[in-house]
Specification:
alpha+beta; SH3 type barrels; Alpha-Beta Plaits; 3 domains; five-stranded antiparallel sheet; 16 helices; 8 strands; rod-shaped
Length: about 525
């Protein structure tokens, strides 16, 4: 193999230093670019291929003088056996170099899969990508230079077809594909390394953004490969412009989607950070409300910008939009006035995000309905009512009207239980029984308990019991429990203490009857 390699290197030197000037095979010269292929441009690789073809013609004549006259007899397309043997030799050298590279790299490369956390992961991954790239490079180069001497014969057989120009384009694409293949394997290695951060036991709050970085590298590398491929092909202008425009539109769409993924990743990062820092429920809900509103706003802006940028790449749509703006100014003003309500709603959503009069999972009373904030958007708020109904309220409602927020700073509340009894009810016994009921209940949070007589009425007294609980649902159940057990206590112990209506009948005196008698007679 080494001798074959040195022979391949020494043959051109012998040809250039030969004193005997042997003319190459009689092959008419072909124009670099025929008239019907004006879009094909000459390149350095095409010039190299043409010079190498001439050198092979000289070498084949020298080689045929060694082999004998049989090697000068044309086989097909005026190709001689001597030239075919040289081409096979060149192709063999290409495969030999590829085999040497694979053999050398396999000494340091392990076929086992290693985790991204180990040092061998990077070494083996880079060596694997390098082995594939170098093997492909040598094989493709050998095949290209082995086929170059046949191109003049094929071009003549096809009537002046620009074989060198087309082969140069194919060579450009092949070399570029080899480089892109190497870069894609490295990017895949980086993606695997970045994705592994999410699956690690000790996950940090910013790890959720790493997969998006890997996807951005991969897709933008693919778009770059498409863009460069169109540039290398050097197609006719209409096709080239259409190709560049398609890649540009695809680039806008892909990067807008990646930016949206980045926004979602940042939202996940903030949520993960709040869990790691162990925020209390109210601070966590405040943060989630702001993040959700800002995320929806950014996604909306990115979608609008993406659509606008896509339309700007289409000339016909861009001209149509310019014509509409120029000839329909009044319509634009009307549209602006019509959008005023929507803009004010969006601004109201931003104010809600900044001031936060309510947050996700806050307990509120809106329009007489008790419920929990389920969703906050830029235009409306969804409230989950206690009976599983959904109340959808415009976002401006919470800036223009008053509403109750039972969990603004804390969820603990004080509940009130009123009941009415007769004037002879034993208040101390009722207070002791109410205290026993509240202290025995698991719903009481041991903060507030009071029993007071708060009012006298014409037929009864008003007694108020105050008790506290950690949240509104628990407080509601505690108030119901107190009412029920106080009612049973009064029924069993003091049934006569319920409110009653008293009437008193009195007899009129004699003087009063004498006064009323004349009047009655009259």
């Amino acid at each position: 193999m080494s001798r074959l390699f040195w022979v391949l290197l020494l043959i051109p030197m012998v040809a250039f230093s030969s004193e005997v000037q042997i003319q190459p095979e009689a092959t008419p010269s072909l124009p670099s670019v025929p008239a019907r292929f004006t879009f094909l441009k000459t390149s350095w690789l095409q010039d190299l291929a043409e010079r190498f073809s001439n050198d092979i013609d000289v070498l084949s004549l020298e080689f045929s003088s060694i082999l004998g006259g049989w090697s000068r007899q044309p086989l097909f397309f005026a190709i001689t056996p001597a030239k075919l043997l040289l081409l096979v030799l060149i192709l063999t050298v290409g495969f030999a170099l590829a085999g040497l590279v694979r053999l050398f790299i396999l000494k340091n490369y392990s076929l086992n899969r290693f985790k991204p956390t180990t040092g061998r992961f990077w070494r083996d991954g880079i060596l694997f990508a390098l082995r594939r790239a170098l093997s492909g490079l040598f094989i493709f180069t050998g095949a290209f230079f082995a086929s170059v001497p046949l191109l003049p014969h094929i071009g003549l057989a096809l009537g002046g077809f620009p074989t060198f120009a087309i082969a140069a384009k194919v060579a450009h694409l092949g070399l570029f594909a080899t480089g892109i293949g190497f870069c894609l394997r490295i990017v895949r290695l980086v993606r695997q390394w970045l994705n592994d951060f999410v699956n690690r036991p000790s996950v940090r709050w910013y790890y959720s953004a790493f997969p998006v970085v890997g996807e951005a590298l991969f897709y933008n590398l693919v778009l770059f490969a498409c863009w460069t491929t169109i540039y290398i092909l050097d197609l006719p202008n209409p096709i080239e412009r259409a190709g560049f425009k398609m890649v540009s539109i695809a680039s806008i769409i892909v990067n807008i989607l990646l930016l949206i993924r980045s926004v979602l990743a940042v939202e996940a990062m903030m949520t993960s950070r709040s869990e790691m820092l162990k925020y209390d429920a109210y601070k966590k809900r405040r943060m989630e409300t702001s993040v959700q509103l800002i995320r929806r706003l950014l996604v909306f802006i990115l979608v609008v910008v993406g659509i606008a940028a896509t339309l700007m790449n289409i000339k016909e749509v861009r001209q149509l939009g310019a014509g509409l703006l120029a000839s329909a100014g009044v319509a634009g003003v009307i549209a602006g006035l019509a959008a005023q309500k929507s803009l004010s709603t969006i601004i109201a959503g931003l104010q809600i995000a900044i001031m936060q009069p309510m947050r996700i999972d806050d307990v509120v009373i809106v329009e007489g309905e008790w419920g929990t904030i389920e969703e906050i958007t830029l235009t409306y708020v969804v409230i989950r009512v206690w009976d599983q109904r959904r109340l959808v309220v415009p976002i401006t409602y919470f800036l223009e009207k008053a509403f109750q927020n039972w969990t603004r700073n804390s969820s603990d509340l004080i509940g009130v239980v009123f009941f009415y009894a007769d004037f002879f009810i034993p208040v101390q016994e009722v207070r002791a029984e109410a205290q026993r009921i509240v202290e025995a209940s698991t719903r009481w949070d041991k903060r507030v308990f009071v029993v007071q007589v708060t009012d006298f009425r014409s037929d009864c007294v008003e007694i108020r019991i105050l008790a506290s609980a950690e949240n509104s649902p628990t407080l509601f159940d505690l108030r119901c429990e107190i009412r029920e057990k106080i009612l049973l206590f009064l029924q069993n112990q003091y049934p006569g203490s319920f409110p009653r209506v008293r009437t008193a009948l009195t007899r009129l005196g004699d003087k009063d009857s004498e006064r009323r008698t004349p009047n009655a007679e009259r």
